[in-house]
Each structure stands twice: as structure tokens, then as C-alpha cells.
Design brief:
Elements: E1 10-14, H1 18-30, E2 34-38, H2 41-48, E3 55-59, H3 66-77, E4 85-89, H4 94-103, E5 110-112, H5 117-130, E6 142-143, E7 151-156, E8 159-168, E9 172-177, E10 188-196, E11 199-213, E12 216-222, H6 229-252
Parallel strand pairs: 1-2, 1-3, 3-4, 4-5
Antiparallel strand pairs: 6-8, 7-8, 7-10, 8-9, 9-12, 10-11, 11-12
């Protein structure tokens, strides 16, 4: 199947360990990877088979026995749409590692979390790099349409302008003003207050593009290079929440449940 290499791959953690949820995920999103956490192996099997070029890391310490996880992983990696899988575990048994790496031939590694957070992170990061999980797009961008309590305002002269954020990444955003506002290319907008699910961050930057849409003029703004990490952290947190909302909704959809393990 042809894959658009410009697009990033979706990275799933099935039954993520607490250290993955608390530490690794936010760092991976800050490295511009599209990361999703899932806790339902039955529905996930049907969902992931519809995703183009996913990468899956599975916590084999939960939910199923080792034997059943082997069957599950074999099934994911088989068929017409094989899914690349990596394993995360606190189990240090070298025989277990051999079984997954040599017998099952999992392509994305057997990661022993007892090695420590930093080493585990580096292994996962290297795996994602080798698999070109970012695609050619360097920055992770999410669509904000329909996301509640999300928008922006900015004071231009004595006038407070408001609008909706169409999409956003760590380096810029596109937006539409509520009123008919015309700005020239390269216009520098200072002190834009962006509301992301109620979370506030303040950005500035030049207008680098504009196009006409049925909803009005769509402006593209690049954030200034001096944007603080605190502001970017706010954006990364929002991006992660949007991605997680996306997979939560997908997992709720009625679908054929395949007989497993």
C-alpha cells in the first residue's frame, strides 16, 4: 500500500505503564510524535487494523497472560495489514526477551523499563526515528474545529478582536476572525491570547499566509522564535488532549469485535 510519507504515523501504547503515562508521553509529544494511550485490547485490534502505518507498544505485564499476548501480537503482525509491535515490561527474564525478539521477531524492540526512564525513552525514540514515525512533517499539528472552549483574542489598536483557532502546532496556528478583518502578509501580531480547552497561552508572530474559505479569511501565523517553553508546553498539553479525545471517540464506535487469543 502506498503511504504518504509526508504524514506522521500514529503511535499507540496499549495498557501503558504509569511511568509511560506520567513521563514518557508528554516528552514524545514534545518531540512531535502523535501518541495515543489505549486500554482495551479487544476493540483496539479492530481499530488499529484500519490505521495506515501505525506503531504499537504493548505492556505485556497487564490484561493477558504472556502466552495470550504472544498470540495477540502474532495476529497483529500477520495478515494483509501487518502492524509493527514493540513490547514494554518490567520483566527482566532474558528468555522472555528472546521469545519475543527471536521467535516472534517483533520489529520495535523489547524494552525493559527497569533500565530506567532515560534509557527507555531513548530506545523508544530511536525506534520511532528508525520507523520514520514523524514522516516528513517536522511538527505535529491538530485540528481544533469542534474543540470546546478553544479560540483566541487580540487587542489591535483600541479594538478587541476574537476568532476561532482552526489548527495549531508548536510553531504556529491558522485562525479565522469572527468579524471581517483584513491583514497584510508579514503583519506582526503581538500578544495573542489563545484559549485551548480553557487553558490560556500568549503568543506573537507574523502573518505568513492567507486564503479564502466559506467561513472567512483563513490566516496562518508563525510564532516568534522567542516563544517560551512554558507557552509551548501549554500547546503540547492541548495537542495531547486532542489526540486522546480522538482515540477515545474512535474506540467508542460500534464495530465488529474479532475473536481473540
Amino acid at each position: 500500500m502506498y503511504r504518504n510519507s509526508f504524514l506522521s504515523k500514529k503511535v499507540y501504547f496499549l495498557y501503558p505503564h504509569s511511568v509511560v503515562q506520567k513521563e514518557l508521553v508528554s516528552r514524545l509529544v514534545a518531540q512531535e510524535y502523535a501518541v495515543y494511550l489505549v486500554n482495551d485490547y479487544i476493540r483496539f485490534k479492530d481499530v488499529v487494523k484500519t490505521v495506515e502505518d501505525p506503531i504499537v507498544f504493548i505492556n505485556i505485564d497487564e490484561a493477558l497472560s504472556i502466552k495470550k499476548w504472544k498470540n495477540y501480537i502474532s495476529d497483529l503482525m500477520g495478515g494483509d495489514r501487518p502492524v509493527p509491535v514493540g513490547v514494554l515490561t518490567y520483566n527482566e527474564d532474558p528468555e522472555l526477551a528472546r521469545e519475543f525478539l527471536m521467535d516472534l521477531m517483533i520489529p520495535c524492540g523489547f524494552i525493559k523499563l527497569k533500565l530506567g526512564l532515560e534509557q527507555s525513552f531513548e530506545i523508544i525514540l530511536k525506534t520511532l526515528e528508525v520507523n520514520e514515525a514523524r514522516g516528513r512533517r517536522k511538527y505535529l499539528r491538530v485540528n481544533c474545529s469542534g474543540v470546546k472552549n478553544t479560540g483566541f483574542n487580540v487587542l489591535q489598536g483600541e479594538r478587541m478582536l476574537e476568532g476561532k483557532v482552526v489548527d495549531i502546532s508548536s510553531i504556529g496556528m491558522s485562525f479565522i476572525f469572527n468579524d471581517n478583518v483584513r491583514l497584510a502578509k508579514n503583519t506582526l501580531i503581538k500578544g495573542v491570547q489563545v484559549r485551548l480547552k480553557g487553558r490560556l497561552c500568549r503568543v506573537s508572530g507574523p502573518i505568513v499566509g492567507c486564503s479564502s474559505t466559506p467561513d472567512g479569511l483563513l490566516y496562518v501565523m508563525l510564532f516568534e522564535k522567542t516563544t517560551s517553553y512554558k507557552q509551548k508546553e501549554c500547546i503540547y498539553s492541548f495537542i495531547y488532549e486532542v489526540l486522546q479525545d480522538e482515540i477515545t471517540e474512535v474506540m467508542k464506535r460500534p464495530q465488529l469485535v474479532t475473536t481473540l487469543v
